[in-house]
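OP here, attaching both records as promised.
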Amino acid sequence: MVLSTLQTASIVIGIFYYLFNMRNAQRTQNIQHETRQLQLYLNMAQAWGKEWLDSYIDVIYNQEWDDFDDFMRKYGPISNPEAYRHCMTLGNWGQEAGILFEQQAMDPEIMWRHDGENITRIWEKLEPLVMEFRKRQNHPMFWESFENYYNELKKITEERLAES
């Protein structure tokens, strides 16, 4: 009787110990995953650095156009290669971030906190150009990941505004 009670108690203790260790291992994996995500994102942000900031300031604050043709006249690859490069830098950055987002390589919360405002401003400024480019070049998926990323971040922003 005593032996069977000890055996049962040992089994129960073993099960609790196993579950406790599994839970701690899962927590450790989650922390490591979040750290890797943040490191990946920070590496991407650091890689763009000054070029991204110069491009952001130029496109958001200096460039103005009425339509696609006006943009091409003022800031196209032939008329103003540097301004065009700035526009492409921001779009390509948005596309890369969007791909990370779509592949679930990044936590949407981290990306929203870091990029929400910038992505919104960039996409909303470039969207008319992107849509016209897609039509004229028959390239319907041009910067599609950027657009999807913008739409997801916008949903998160709307949820946050509804919560407050």
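Record two, same layout:
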Amino acid sequence: MPASKKSNTKKILEMTLDGMGTKEIATKLNVSYSTVTSARKRGRDKGELPKIEYGSPLSHGSTYYLRRGCIGDIISGLSKDQLIWLVKEADNYECETLAEVILEMVRDAHAEAKV
């Protein structure tokens, strides 16, 4: 019998607080990537997870200032083979948008760099 939504949400929040990534949680619980991201958003909205601090390192005038650019620049800068690879990676990450793929790739690279 499958776990209830409430039970999965509680597990997702606990695993998040333990430092697990979205893809890892989705795999362990056998749920979709979007199920995990939705549960995390609800957890943040209810105060059960810490809010994400946006923008501070990329704010103009910051020591780490970096122009944001746009996703269209990424797409137009890639070859057809690179775009096909990117679409396949999106499927592997269970992402629906290029922004989600980039987010997951950066999170994975950052986690590996910390090791």
